[in-house]
Design goal:
The chain is mainly α. The chain is 62% helix and 0% strand. It starts with 19 loop residues before the first helix and ends with a helix.
């Protein structure tokens, strides 16, 4: 088999890490889910705001990091 067709294996999960269903703490997993949803919502707000800033600037070439950072700062201050 050549190098382009090798199977890659994913490492096994460490034995000390338990899934939320194994740990018996659904409240903790609910908290984590809420934090993840909040983070995803914040990132979406930043993404939309950064895109608006990029469009307002005339859609310049580049990676848009400055637009993202400005939008992120605005969202954090709000």
């Amino acid at each position: 088999m050549n190098k382009h067709h090798r199977k890659t294996e994913t490492p096994a999960q460490p034995a000390s890490v338990k899934s939320p269903s194994e740990s018996g703490s659904s409240a903790a997993s609910d908290d984590v889910g809420q934090v993840q949803k909040g983070k995803a919502n914040s990132e979406e707000v930043v993404r939309v705001r950064a895109h608006q800033k990029w469009e307002t600037a005339g859609k310049p070439n580049g990676d848009g990091v400055n637009f993202w950072l400005e939008a992120e700062q605005e969202v954090l201050q709000a």
